[in-house]
Amino acid sequence: MAENNTLKRFTTAQFLNFALGFFGLQFAWQMRIILSGPVTENLGASPFIYGLIWLAGPFTGMVVQPLVGALSDKTVSPLGRRRPYLLGGAIFASIALWIFPNSAGFANFLHNVTGADLPVWSALLTAAIMIWIIDACINVAQGPYRALIPDVVPQEQYSLANSYISLAIGLGSVVAAGTAPFLKWMFDYQMSVPAQFTMGALAFTLAMVWTCVMIKEKNRTLPQTSGHPAFVTSVKDFFALSPEVGKICTMQFFTWIGTMCMMIFFTQYSVHTIFGVPDLTTAAESTKQMYNPAVTDATNFSSICFAVFNLICFLVAIPIGILSAKFGNKKVHIISILTMVIAYLGMAFTKNDAAVAALMGLSGIGWASICALPFAMLSQYIKKGTEGSVMGIFNIFIAGPQVFVCTFVAWFISKCQFEMGSDAINYHWEYAFLAGAVCLAAAAGIAYTVKEKA
């Protein structure tokens, strides 16, 4: 702790420089959230296959973040402990972001180069591989980024630092989600999907480079450890940090089941439930062309809703940090999560687009808290020199729940189909919000049992 006390308090300008890299990370991640569904469905992915492709996030999160976090704790380089991972993750993710919406063209390019007869699903396979690379590289950057907070920020500003990350998440998502609808509304120009992914790639790399240049890591003496690998030692000791750590992890587990029920399925919910487009997975090309305008409008609507969702996150991020410093992380977090529960229940039972947009805004309050306060609660128990490992292990309780959503919830939705006319079917995508509301309510109940340090 003595070493931590030597850290100077961050100014507002330093916090903004620190958070800009996360702005770029979230910009790229938002492109992946909003647009991966339409891209993969157009390539032939059913709801269940779409869910399986989304497994990229949780599996890479459960494997990559703990390993990279442990490695970053032990890294010695001219760039410091964390910054090599921030830069490397951003650059390689940006390359995959550019390839992903061009998967069909990339598969054809491989066919022309190799002369091999590729299967009809090669474009979908290419898209799935790119999503796995994107998610793995985002995890490479994200874990060390969170671990950078105890490295450079004094402990009394942990909550505020995490709130600035929430602010960056909200603002990055607003700009990412709102750019295409804004250009359509203002200039009647529809930005193509590949152009939006290219924009996300550039934002990720440039913003991360800025943060790595502006935030200097102090040279630190690595802690003495036993002969055991850092990751193994950290897993063994993780739950010994405090009895409250297990409660925080359980809270996080249910929180992220609820969160990902919305993140993964909202665009498909907008297309098929709000705008009434039937499932186009096996539709003829002429049928897809007929529904193209509706799909574009629905995708723009989804982007607007995510922009509203993240705008509210942006607006309340700093107030949540201030309120949590005054009233405690737990109380503020519980209230914030419960607003998200109310919003989910509303979206499960309405098809009114204005109401859905407003409810997405309400759920943004919970999102701002989810992005900051669980990490602030955990940060109280982190031992010096283990920040990356602890944040990596904590990410298992973010990534693990996504496996449940990508498999069970996706499978459940695929079984809940109904007929639209004589030759069309659709799915009850709104059921995802009912499952999410139940899990978020459970997370709020578990948070109530957490005993915070004074």
Describe the structure.
With 454 residues, the chain is an all-alpha fold. It has a single domain, classed as MFS general substrate transporter like domains (Growth Hormone, Chain: A). The chain contains 17 helices and 2 strands. It has helices at residues 2-5, 12-42, 47-54, 56-74, 83-99, 103-114, 122-152, 158-187, 193-214, 230-238, 243-274, 285-327, 329-348, 353-370, 373-379, 387-415, 431-447, and strands at 417-419, 425-427. The model is unreliable at 223-227 (pLDDT under 50).
Q: Can I get a quick summary?
A:
This protein is an all-alpha fold.
What is the H/E string? HHHHHHHHHHHHHHHHEEH
According to CATH, what is the topology? Growth Hormone, Chain: A
Radius of gyration (CA) equals 22 Å
Distance between the termini: 17 Å
CATH class: Mainly Alpha
> What's the helix count?
17
Sheet of most strands: 2 strands, antiparallel
The CATH architecture classification is: Up-down Bundle
Task: Detail the topology: elements first, then pairings.
Blueprint: H1 2-5, H2 12-42, H3 47-54, H4 56-74, H5 83-99, H6 103-114, H7 122-152, H8 158-187, H9 193-214, H10 230-238, H11 243-274, H12 285-327, H13 329-348, H14 353-370, H15 373-379, H16 387-415, E1 417-419, E2 425-427, H17 431-447
Antiparallel strand pairs: 1-2
